[in-house]
Amino acid sequence: MAASSGDAVDDVPVNAVWACLEADPKAVLVDVRTRPEWTFVGLPDLAGLGREPVLVEWQTFPDSRANAAFVEQLVAQLDQLGADRETELFFICRSGARSRLAAQAARQVGYQKCHNVAEGFEGPLDPDNRQRGRMGGWKAAGLPWSQS
Question: Predicted confidence band at 125 (pLDDT cuts at 50, 70, 90)?
Answer without folding.
Answer: low
